[in-house]
Write a structure and sequence with these properties.
By secondary structure, this protein is of the alpha+beta class. The protein is about 35% helix and about 45% strand. It is built from 2 helices and 4 strands. A 4-stranded mixed beta sheet has the order 1-3-4-2. Strand 3 and strand 4 (about 90-105) form a beta hairpin. The two termini are about 20 Å apart.
Length: about 110
Amino acid sequence: MLVATTNEIEGYKVVKHLGVVRGLTVRSRSVVGNIGAAIQILFGGTISVYTALAEQTRQEAFDLMVRQAEEVGANAVLAMRYDANEIASAVTEVLAYGTAVVVEKTS
């Protein structure tokens, strides 16, 4: 599966548009994770507990989007983007979305 944040992929042409695909996940931080992060905050620097959570959440949303694209017959996703919102205290949604397409190599 090719995934690009651009509207085109060099060396490929779009032969079919299949519509918007998305992957949505909602995550919360655990009490233990918040305590670990609070300790890291005291010392400054990177908050690895939250960094790992953010990366895992984005990867999950990305994987769900790719799965949906495959289900509709796409071999690429163009104009891929992420969006994130806090929907409640300590609860965040992450959305990965883009346009599912079928592409063919041009050269």
